[in-house]
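Quick review question:
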């Protein structure tokens, strides 16, 4: 019996290279191919746009270092959920998982899958926008394909991650090299008086940060799979310190390359700036940028999917989700019920999906919970200094990130109040309606027992223990 229980732990199959690929491979997705024009539209000038990209890279780095301390102190998978649960208690942790499962994670998957689909079908609709139904069918196909891959084997999923990360870095390197050639040839007109026309109002800066941070989303992905990471006390901080500076440098150089070749007007009128850049600079080979953007989005989708399923898995293990989601396949050792559940919710969110609204909604909600998580880190540093820590950051770092998170949550609301923000807040609080009767008072404890037994037999899964 002990041997059987041991077999039903998720295996440690993510090494340092896999960790770097999971972070960088998820971060380098559709954002760098689609967000630059949205950042420029909001902030107004090339110079200020580059400052936003640099600041977002610095913010992602500081936030990930803070998360590295949390991940080496609380060595459990689940990311924000498990950190909030251990520091703020069950009610707030449940509100997080309720919002994450119902909206944030599916919205992230839907947004990335839409950008993947847009770039896949773009070469077939060069003279007109692709039909929404075609885009959404391709996006849904990508989600289903990755659901199958992730359910079958962890190692296959990580191999896909490493391969696509290499392809992404190569694609961005092509853009950077071409940009250097443009600059050497004297194409610097768009970078002269680069701060002219900058929008300095709070709402514009906040929205520019939201659109830019979409490209950095994934900086915390390794914290979701801590139990599957080899030597997390060493590899978690190392992976962060390698992956995020690499991505930030690539993003800055790629943006400089865009500005060296395209005018601000050309960028702001583009629906996919990398494709516009490719058609102008590469000529007949411009289709390569559509391919690169599609590959990048697909790899990022795989990373988001890989980590997102683990959040459901851990929440179910803690009693905040149905028991079936805390089970793993008895032969493949993958949390297949949680992955299937995540896929289903993502496909539902995909139906009314719109890329830009998804980004704004996702970013606002995500940074609200990042702020709560960082408050938990400050609590541990001040009230629990006795806890063993393999890695620590100066207390000023989480304080700075917390202030940035508060700004990103409050700035758009204060400067440009919209009813949608109230809807978001009410939706988050509506989780209380589920928490009080079903989690706190444990009403109808056997409500899903028969369904759980049926699903367990059908999916060939069993409860999995923590792998600490």
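Suggested answer, residue by residue:
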């Amino acid at each position: 019996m002990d041997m059987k229980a041991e077999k039903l732990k998720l295996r440690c199959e993510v090494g340092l290279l896999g960790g770097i690929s999971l972070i960088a491979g998820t971060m380098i997705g559709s954002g760098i191919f689609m967000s630059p024009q949205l950042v420029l539209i909001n902030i107004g000038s090339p110079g200020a746009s580059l400052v936003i990209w640099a600041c977002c890279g610095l913010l992602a780095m500081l936030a990930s270092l803070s998360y590295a301390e949390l991940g080496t102190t609380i060595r459990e998978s689940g990311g924000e959920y498990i950190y909030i649960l251990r520091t703020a208690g069950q009610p707030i942790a449940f509100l997080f998982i309720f919002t994450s499962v119902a909206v944030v994670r599916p919205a992230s998957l839907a947004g990335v899958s839409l950008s993947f689909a847009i770039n896949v079908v773009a070469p077939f609709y060069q003279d007109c926008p692709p039909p929404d139904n075609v885009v959404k069918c391709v996006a849904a196909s990508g989600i289903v394909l990755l659901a199958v891959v992730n359910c079958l084997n962890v190692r296959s999923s990580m191999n896909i991650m490493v391969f696509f990360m290499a392809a992404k870095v190569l694609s961005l390197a092509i853009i950077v090299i071409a940009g250097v050639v443009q600059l050497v040839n004297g194409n610097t007109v768009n970078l002269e008086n680069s701060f002219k026309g900058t929008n300095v109002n709070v709402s514009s800066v906040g929205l520019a940060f939201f659109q830019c941070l979409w490209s950095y989303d994934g900086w915390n992905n390794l914290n979701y799979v801590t139990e599957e990471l080899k030597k997390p006390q060493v590899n978690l901080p190392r992976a962060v310190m390698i992956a995020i500076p690499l991505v930030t440098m690539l993003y800055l150089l790629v943006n400089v390359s865009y500005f060296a070749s395209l005018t601000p007007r050309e960028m702001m009128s583009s629906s996919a700036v990398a494709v516009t850049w490719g058609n102008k600079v590469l000529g007949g080979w411009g289709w390569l940028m559509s391919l690169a953007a599609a590959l990048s989005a697909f790899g990022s989708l795989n990373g988001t999917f890989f980590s997102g399923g683990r959040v459901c898995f851990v929440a179910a293990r803690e009693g905040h989700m149905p028991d079936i989601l805390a089970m793993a396949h008895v032969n493949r050792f993958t949390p297949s019920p949680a992955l299937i559940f995540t896929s289903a919710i993502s496909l539902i969110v995909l139906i009314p999906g719109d890329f830009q609204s998804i980004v704004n909604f996702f970013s606002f909600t995500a940074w609200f919970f990042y702020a709560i998580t960082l408050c938990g880190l400050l609590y541990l540093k001040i009230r629990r200094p006795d806890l063993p820590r393999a890695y620590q950051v100066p207390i000023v770092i989480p304080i700075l990130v917390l202030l940035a998170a508060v700004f990103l949550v409050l700035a758009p609301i204060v400067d440009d109040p919209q009813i949608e923000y109230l809807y978001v807040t009410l939706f988050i609080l509506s989780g209380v309606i589920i928490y009080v009767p079903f989690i706190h008072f444990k009403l109808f404890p056997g409500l899903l027992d028969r369904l759980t037994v049926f699903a367990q037999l059908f999916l060939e899964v069993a409860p999995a223990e923590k792998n600490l």
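Why it works: Confidence is low (pLDDT under 50) at residues 1-6. The CA atoms of residues 100 and 158 lie 23 Å apart.
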